[in-house]
Specification:
Elements lengths: L27 H9 L10 E7 L2 E9 L5 E6 L12 E2 L6 E7 L6 E7 L5 E4 L6 E2 L7 E2 L10 H10 L7 E5 L1 H4 L13 H15 L3 E4 L3 E2 L12 E5 L6 H13 L3 E6 L25 H4 E2 L4 E2 L6 H18 L3 E4 L2 H5 L21 H17 L4 E4 L21 E3 L1 H12 L9 H5 L10 E5 L11 H4 L4 H17 L3 E5 L24 H19 L13 E5 L7 E6 L8 E6 L5 E9 L6 E4 L17 E6 L4 E8 L3 E5 L1
Parallel strand pairs: 10-11, 10-21, 11-14, 14-17, 17-18, 18-19, 19-20, 20-21
Antiparallel strand pairs: 1-2, 2-5, 3-6, 4-5, 6-7, 6-9, 8-9, 12-13, 15-16, 22-23, 23-24, 24-29, 25-28, 26-29, 27-28
Helix pairs in contact: 1-7, 4-5, 7-9, 13-14
Amino acid sequence: MAETIPKYEEKNFVDTSKLVWNYSMLTDEDVRNYQQGSHYSLYKKFGSHSIQVNGKWGVYFCVWAPNGTSVSVIGNFNHWKKREYELYPRWDKSGIWEGFIPGFKLGEAYKYHIVGYHGRETDKGDPFAYFWEKRPQTATITWDMYYEWKDDEWMKKRKKHNALDAPWSVYEVHLASWMRPDKFDEETYNTYDQITERLVPYVKEMGFTHVELMPVMEHPFDGSWGYQCTGFFAATSRFGDPQGLMRMIEAFHKADIGVVLDWVPSHFPYDAHGLFMFDGTHTYEYADMRKGFHPDWNSYIFNYKRGEVKSFLISSARFWFDLFHIDGIRVDAVSSMLKLNYSRDEGEWEPNEHGGDGNLEAIDFIKDLNQTIFRDFPDAQTIAEEATDWPGVTKPTFSNGLGFGMKWMMGWMHDTLDYFEFDPVERKFHQDKFGFSLMYYYDENFMLPLSHDEVVHGKSPMLFKMPGDEWQKAANLRLLYTYMWTHPGGKLLFMGNEFGQTTEWNYKSELDWHLLQHEKHRKLKNCVTDLNKLLNGEPALYENQFNIYGFEWVDLNHREESVIVYRRKGKAAADDLLIILNMTPVVRNDWEIYVREKTYQKEIFNSDKTIYWGTGNVYNPDIRSELVDKEQKIYRLKINLPALAGLILK
């Protein structure tokens, strides 16, 4: 179904003898809002749209090239001849070029041939295109985005599912390398539908509440993992057309699984067909390379000061919520956006007007982004990857916060991995590192990430980060996951970590699915599945996950033995859980724990069970409890603690 224009306006009267008709879909208000940085649905007007004008079907094109002296549409349809199908510059000097080409069809490859600054000629893909050719081809494709969604039931109830007092257990996925048709051929991909057929039931079986897809926006280089994006409004064609991704998201929703997309508004690559030097000069990026070039990623930084760029980016984020029904975005590299001195030495950056290191226009952009998303999609979430101690990342903008719904807890990740990599004999000397995150867990709405970044570039897979022999490595990893799932905050686990991948992640291959033939890996997967079931079924693990009322230390006085005890608390006292972590390979029978006000009667989780590849020798069929101080309501529990294991009592 093509998009039609409600009413033909007199000012758009066209000379039908021309190859390109002088026609506009834009109102003066559209242009004004675009320039002011407040037009957040540009995808409805810019780019290419199949419409009917004067009874003739064709495609309307609209692109911003403020330093252009000529902009033409080129493609297979005219054998890529330059300056044959020239667009018209708007009379208002907005830098917008537009026009209608009668008879132009959907599914046609095209680019813009731009004669720009100092006569420089470039052939650019359409920044607003819905579809691109599969790399290494670089043209954009006219496409219709109609899709008849069948996820009404999910959309009506997702507010509860995506709320901050709901369980959040996220499975992070790189679609190309989760599973391939040929494991060893990086040029082969499953289609969106083939991935859906396998991935959706797998995530459902594992009990994850959400998936997070590493960038599915079009990108030229597989080795960027999608984080060097050229198509901010296009699902990558590696796996098929945009409707294929829509079907995938719909299938997740029908399985009661939310979908979060990685989104990268921090930088873009220098590929000739992309945004860099779009009209012969710095159009989308800062002209001052102290702000405009990213030294870590050899890429270019958006000029957040330009209203047109701000409108472009917020429209991109809104596009995925609007047309693809996503439940959240995880915004990549927020730290690099906020800090003018990010990865820059003294003399390589310039302070802001107040003498500080904050990028003021980027801060304003982020606030407007979050305000817009939560205004238009209040039942969704935004999540920041922010690795510094920037204050108020998840505080409301009216309280001078950035307005995100959640933030990755990078400090927890680093401290936890450092702690678990110690030989258990040495852990008693590092209990402060272990417990540090629980001193500030309520400062922000934190999500605990064990992401793709932790299993690449020589960091080793999760299983091999753990110390000890084969059994101890597995026990330590189960213990870490028990701690992670019982720590306040959302959870995120990268694909392969759930069954103990034994090689680092390689985007060129697929996960080592053959490992599931082995008992150790199958049973580790059982452990993660049961932790997800507990998270979904025990309100104490999620109802107060982002506030001070959800956690309480019970015993931190046994450093020598490295036994740690804490309570997770829900809104109802009866839902409280007691978590006991034995961080050493020593079995401790009749271990005494003193608890106040209530006792615990049932062991509901034990990471040492045989179904998880544990010993199964140490467990608690009955919890022995004794009231030792009636006035203070203090009970003494005697618990059998397995080696390198976590217990959950209710």
